Structures are given as C-alpha cells and as structure tokens.
C-alpha cells in the first residue's frame, strides 16, 4: 500500500477513476443479478398460472403476485387495451363486438409491442455502463501506466543512474494502474455478456407471450 | 392504461452502497495482508549455505576475529584501531600511567614485551589467514572449473578424453547458447558459419551462408557471443577452427 502513496498525481487520479468504474459496475452487477433472476423466476410462475387460469379478469386480479415479471406488464397492457375496445363497442351497442379488421387485434398488438419495448429498456438500463467500463478501463489503466513510466524515466534521468534498483520501483508503481484497470474491466465484461444473454432469453419469452396472447384474443373475442 | 407496479427490490443506490462496502472490505484485506495469521504460519528460518566455499576449512569462520584483534591492540597506542569505541579504552590505561611516574620503567619493559608478543601473534594470524585465503580461492577455482566442464554433458570432462573432444564441447556450448537466445521468423532457417577459437579462448565467427531470416541470423550472432563468454580455450594452446551449421533444432 506504500506503493500507492508514492505514485504521482496523474496516476492517483487514474486510480480514483478506475475505482469509481469498479464500484459503479459492481453496483450495477448486483442490481442486475437481483432484477434478472427475480424476473426469470416470476415469469416462470406467471406463465404456469396463466395457462392454468380460465379467465383474463382472474389473472388480472392476481398480477401483484408476479410483480417482478415483465410478462405481467405485457398482460396488463394487452388486457387494458382489450377492455377499452370492449367498452367502446358496448357504447355503440353493436352486437358484433371486436372487429378483427383495422381496430381490434392490431390495437392490442401495438400495445403489447410498446410494453415489450419499455420492458426491454428497463431490463437493459445501466448495462451500457458495464460495456463502457469493460471497453475503456484497461485503456485508462494503460494511460496511467504510461504516464507513471514516463515520470519514472524522468526521475531516472535526473538521478543519472540506470540500475535496476532505480528503474524497477517506478515501473512497478506505474503498473498498478494497468492491474486495477483490468480488475475493473474483467467483471464488467463478464457481467455484461451474462446479462445480455439473460435479457435475450426474457425478450424471446415476451415475444412468444405476445403471440400467444394475441392468438387467445383472436380466438375468443374477435368476430363474436 | 399505465403500468402501475412498484417493484420492491433495492434500487441501484442500495446496490452501489453494497458494492462500495465490498470494495472497502477487499481493500482492507489487501492492505492488511501481511498481518493475517496464516501468512506467517509455515515460515521456518532459512539457512543459506555457500556451496563453493563449503569444502574448505576456513579457520576464520569459527574464530571471533574482531575481539581477538582488538584485545592485543588495546594497549598499543600507535595502532590504527579501526573500531571507534576502542579509542577511549586505549586512552584510559595510559592516563593513570602518566600520573604515577615511579613504576614507569617497569611498565615500559612490560609494554615492550607485550608489544613484541602481539606483533608475533599478529604476524602468525596474518600468515594463517593468507594461507587459508589461498586455499579457499584455489578450491573455488577448482569447483568452478569442474562446474564448467560438467556443463558439456560429460561429468568431470577435461576436453582430452575420448568422446569429449573440443568440437563436441564447443557444439554443446553453442547449442545451449542458441536455445537461450533463439528467435525465428521463417519456418526452417539455417546458418552456416565458421567458428574460430583462438588459444586465449576468444571466439570469432564468419557467416558462410546466411538463413535469410534476420531474426535467426541475429540469434546465431548472439548465441556465439554468449557461448564465447564462458569458453574454455582449446587444448594444447592451439587455434581451433570448424564450420558449424546452426538450425532451430540445434547445432551440427
């Protein structure tokens, strides 16, 4: 730790920046771990419940139990849109309720797509920081090292001695920056790739749920 | 319809605090690494043995050298007296001697006798030390020579026995050196060079046919220079000259 104290100002600033990168990226990793794993678990339980339940309004009343699943948001949006269409038709008092032409199912599909997009945005929030950390932290560390070595060589030039005992400590101090850069970047890259994969799985789950929801709507409500 | 879920897990702020705590813990562990109990658990005292000087019975090794020299020199005033604290010890006995004049002559003869004894003792010690030093150096040289000869792959070889001629010795030295500095750019480079070793052991080389691979050419040059650093001169004070073929696999 004495090594850190004897580094120059620029290297110290670089180390602070890298520490910030590391702290924030680990915060994001913990946050995303919780978010993604809860979303996965809740989605599984919600799908099980969805296929067992007979009525949409019964499902809608139980949505609070699966609050972490993105599918509940999709269902809520789709069901809300369906209710609006029904109300509109009831107002017109026309017995042919939801039309499959332009209005009905397309409206629900649009609502589902919008909900999917907003959920993807929510799930991918903060991941950009992980990507940035993974890509830039090693370079920031390298910059610190290069600067440290430059300063070390300057000092060596002033002292006039080129023995290893004079050269080595300065370079060792400078290399800390690269080491910490890598320490910050490696978990960030691993976390980013892991969450990207998990979110991709959730997105495909949302897509298939949207399709199933539309199928059910078309089967049971349209053209009645 | 708006989504109205209020998801109840800790937000990014809480996780940021958790991350900060984790970093702090890791930092403290690294900072106090040397104070951890298991770090020193298996540490035994290490004794270093100088293998080169070990076989020689050095007489000064078991002898308390500094006090032996300091004691006889203490009364002798003109001695250079290397240790600083010896000076007041020397001054003390002379002062009372100056204050009491009657036993002066007796003290003088005693002092002279003592000085003569000390002188003889010092000379004897110097001789012993000199002979011990000579023997130690001779043994070290012998050990080094043996070490050098065993590096050829033939234990105790002198370069004159059958199967241990100077060519194979030089070849093995060149092969070892090439292994240390080898660098290639092409697939199978080959350098043919004439190696000349003068009677004083200095090495010289001339490239007959280069490999076309600048890295390998330079490696060969460095290998020859490296081998030449610790080369035993050819036997019978003759000049040695031979063509060698340098390849990444070895030297022929």
UniProtKB/TrEMBL annotation, chain A:
<comment type="similarity">
    <text>Belongs to the exbB/tolQ family.</text>
</comment>
<protein>
    <submittedName>
        <fullName>Protein TolQ</fullName>
    </submittedName>
</protein>
<dbReference type="InterPro" id="IPR014163">
    <property type="entry name" value="Tol-Pal_TolQ"/>
</dbReference>
<keyword id="KW-0653">Protein transport</keyword>
<dbReference type="InterPro" id="IPR050790">
    <property type="entry name" value="ExbB/TolQ_transport"/>
</dbReference>
<keyword id="KW-0131">Cell cycle</keyword>
<keyword id="KW-0472">Membrane</keyword>
<keyword id="KW-1133">Transmembrane helix</keyword>
<feature type="domain" description="MotA/TolQ/ExbB proton channel">
    <location>
        <begin position="103"/>
        <end position="207"/>
    </location>
</feature>
<dbReference type="GO" id="GO:0017038">
    <property type="term" value="P:protein import"/>
</dbReference>
<dbReference type="GO" id="GO:0043213">
    <property type="term" value="P:bacteriocin transport"/>
</dbReference>
<keyword id="KW-0132">Cell division</keyword>
<dbReference type="GO" id="GO:0005886">
    <property type="term" value="C:plasma membrane"/>
</dbReference>
<keyword id="KW-0812">Transmembrane</keyword>
<keyword id="KW-0997">Cell inner membrane</keyword>
<dbReference type="InterPro" id="IPR002898">
    <property type="entry name" value="MotA_ExbB_proton_chnl"/>
</dbReference>
<dbReference type="Pfam" id="PF01618">
    <property type="entry name" value="MotA_ExbB"/>
</dbReference>
<keyword id="KW-1003">Cell membrane</keyword>
<keyword id="KW-0813">Transport</keyword>
<dbReference type="GO" id="GO:0051301">
    <property type="term" value="P:cell division"/>
</dbReference>
<feature type="transmembrane region" description="Helical">
    <location>
        <begin position="126"/>
        <end position="150"/>
    </location>
</feature>
<feature type="transmembrane region" description="Helical">
    <location>
        <begin position="13"/>
        <end position="34"/>
    </location>
</feature>
UniProtKB/TrEMBL annotation, chain B:
<feature type="region of interest" description="Disordered">
    <location>
        <begin position="60"/>
        <end position="120"/>
    </location>
</feature>
<feature type="transmembrane region" description="Helical">
    <location>
        <begin position="12"/>
        <end position="35"/>
    </location>
</feature>
<feature type="compositionally biased region" description="Low complexity">
    <location>
        <begin position="87"/>
        <end position="98"/>
    </location>
</feature>
<feature type="compositionally biased region" description="Basic and acidic residues">
    <location>
        <begin position="111"/>
        <end position="120"/>
    </location>
</feature>
<feature type="compositionally biased region" description="Pro residues">
    <location>
        <begin position="75"/>
        <end position="86"/>
    </location>
</feature>
<keyword id="KW-0812">Transmembrane</keyword>
<keyword id="KW-0472">Membrane</keyword>
<protein>
    <submittedName>
        <fullName>Energy transduction protein TonB</fullName>
    </submittedName>
</protein>
<keyword id="KW-1133">Transmembrane helix</keyword>
<feature type="compositionally biased region" description="Low complexity">
    <location>
        <begin position="63"/>
        <end position="74"/>
    </location>
</feature>
<dbReference type="Pfam" id="PF13103">
    <property type="entry name" value="TonB_2"/>
</dbReference>
């Amino acid at each position: 730790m004495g090594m850190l104290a004897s580094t120059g100002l620029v290297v110290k600033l670089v180390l602070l920046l890298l520490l910030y990168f590391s702290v924030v990226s680990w915060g994001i990793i913990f946050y995303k771990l919780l978010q993604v794993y809860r979303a996965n678990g809740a989605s599984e339980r919600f799908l099980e419940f969805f296929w067992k339940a007979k009525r949409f309004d019964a499902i809608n009343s139980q949505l609070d139990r699966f609050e972490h699943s993105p599918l509940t948001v999709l269902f809520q949006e789709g069901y809300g849109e369906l209710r609006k269409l029904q109300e509109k038709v009831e107002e017109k008092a026309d017995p042919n309720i939801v039309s499959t032409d332009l209005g009905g199912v397309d409206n629900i599909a649009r609502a589902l797509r919008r909900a999917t997009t907003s959920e993807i945005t929510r799930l991918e929030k903060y991941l950009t920081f992980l990507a940035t950390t993974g890509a830039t932290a090693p370079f920031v560390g390298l910059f610190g090292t290069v600067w440290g070595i430059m300063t070390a060589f300057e000092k060596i030039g002033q002292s006039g001695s080129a023995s290893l005992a004079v050269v080595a400590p300065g370079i060792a101090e400078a290399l800390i920056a690269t080491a910490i850069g890598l320490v910050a970047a490696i978990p960030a890259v691993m976390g980013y790739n892991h969450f990207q994969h998990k979110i991709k799985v959730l997105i495909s789950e949302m897509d298939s749920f949207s399709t199933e929801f539309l199928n059910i709507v078309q089967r049971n409500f349209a053209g009645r | 319809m708006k989504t109205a879920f209020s998801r109840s897990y800790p937000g990014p702020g809480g996780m940021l605090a958790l991350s900060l705590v984790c970093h702090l813990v890791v930092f403290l562990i690294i900072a106090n690494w040397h104070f951890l109990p298991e770090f020193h658990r298996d540490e035994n005292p290490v004794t270093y043995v100088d293998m080169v000087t070990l076989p020689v019975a050095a007489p000064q090794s078991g002898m308390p050298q500094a006090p032996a020299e300091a004691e006889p020199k203490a009364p002798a005033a003109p001695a250079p007296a290397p240790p600083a604290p010896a000076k007041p010890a020397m001054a003390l006995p002379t002062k009372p001697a100056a204050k009491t004049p009657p036993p002066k002559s007796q003290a003088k003869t005693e002092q002279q006798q003592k000085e003569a004894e000390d002188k003889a003792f010092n000379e004897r010690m110097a001789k012993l030390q000199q002979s011990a030093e000579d023997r130690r150096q001779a043994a070290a040289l012998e050990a080094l020579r043996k070490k050098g000869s065993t590096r050829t792959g033939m234990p105790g070889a002198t370069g004159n026995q059958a199967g241990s001629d100077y060519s194979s010795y030089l070849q093995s030295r060149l092969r070892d050196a090439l292994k240390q500095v080898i660098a290639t750019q092409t697939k199978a480079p080959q350098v043919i060079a004439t190696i000349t070793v003068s009677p004083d052991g200095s090495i010289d080389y001339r490239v007959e046919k280069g490999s076309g691979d600048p890295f390998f050419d330079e490696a060969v040059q460095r290998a020859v220079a490296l081998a030449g650093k610790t080369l035993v001169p050819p036997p019978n004070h003759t000049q040695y000259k031979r063509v060698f073929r340098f390849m990444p696999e070895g030297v022929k």
